[in-house]
Amino acid sequence: MEILSVNVGRPRDNPWKDAPKTYIDKRPVEGPVQVTAPGPKGDGSVGLAGDRVGDVEHHGGTDQAVYVYASEDYGRFGALVGREFGPGAFGENLTTAGYDVNGARIGERWAGPGGLVLEVTGARIPCSTFRGWIAERGWLKTFTREARPGPYMRVVEPGHVEAGAALEVVHRPDHEVTVALFFRAAMGESELIPGILETPGLPPGEAAFLRERYNGG
C-alpha cells in the first residue's frame, strides 16, 4: 500500500469532551517523520514525532501509537454525506491507498521505511470529540453502520514515514479477526466478543476493553 499523506496533530480546545485539548486536527507534513514506540498510555505520547493526544486516559500509548485510514474509505463517507474528506480529516496519522486496512487482521504486520515495522492492534472507536469534529448529524450512527474505522497500530521496530513511501504486509496471522470485525464487536455485536477474546496476540488492553463491553460496561 502507498502512504498518501503523513499527518500530525495541532492542539486546539476541546469543547466536546472533558479534556482541555485535542489533537484530532491532523495536518499533512513534509519530509520523513520519525516513528518510535511511545510506551504505556498516560502521558499523551504517540508514535509520530511531533504528535500527541489530548485525552490521555483513552488514547495514545503503546497499542494506539499510529492510526491509519484509507483514502478509499474516505470516498465512501464522502458519497454518503455529500462532502469531501481530505487527508487527516478523521485524525489519522497515515492516509493510505491500495489496501483494505479494515480487512487487516489483529496482529498483522506492515514494514516501511528505515526498518519500520507496525502491528495492527485494534480499531478506532468513535467518541464525542470525533462526532463534534466531523459535525454531521447522526455521524456516530453512520460511522458505526459502515464499519470502516481504520486500524490502530503499535510500533514493533522504529523507522520513519513519508508521503509516497510504501508499506508492505510482511505477516498475516492465521485467524479471521479483522479490524472491521473487532469494531463491530465493540460497537454492539457483543456475541462476537467471546471468539475475539481467544485471538492470539490480542493486546491485553484491547481484551479488557472488549470484556467491559461484553459485561455491559
List the helices and strands and how they pair.
Elements: E1 2-13, E2 21-28, E3 33-35, E4 66-70, H1 71-81, E5 94-97, E6 109-111, E7 117-123, H2 128-134, H3 139-146, E8 151-157, E9 159-161, E10 168-171, H4 179-186, H5 193-196, H6 204-214
Parallel strand pairs: 4-5
Antiparallel strand pairs: 1-2, 1-5, 3-9, 4-8, 6-7, 6-10, 7-8
Question: Summarize this, please?
Answer:
Helix content is 23%, strand content 26%. It has 217 residues and is α+β, with helices and mostly antiparallel strands.
Major sheet details? 8 strands, mixed
What's the architecture in CATH terms?
Beta Barrel
- What is the level 1 CATH name? Mainly Beta
First and last CA, distance: 37 Å
What is the residue-averaged pLDDT?
97
* Quantity of strands, as a count: 10
Q: What fold name stands as the CATH topology?
A: M1 Pyruvate Kinase, Domain 3
The helix/strand order is EEEEHEEEHHEEEHHH
Question: Low-confidence runs (pLDDT<50, min 5 residues)?
Answer: none
Going by helix content, strand content and strand pairing, the class is: alpha+beta
Structure overview:
With 217 residues, this protein is of the alpha+beta class. The protein has a single domain, classed as M1 Pyruvate Kinase, Domain 3 (Beta Barrel), CATH 2.40.33. Helix content is 23%, strand content 26%. The protein has six helices and ten strands. The chain has helices at 71-81, 128-134, 139-146, 179-186, 193-196, 204-214, and strands at residues 2-13, 21-28, 33-35, 66-70, 94-97, 109-111, 117-123, 151-157, 159-161, 168-171. The longest helix has 11 residues, at 71-81. The protein is globular. The model has no long low-confidence stretch (mean pLDDT 97).
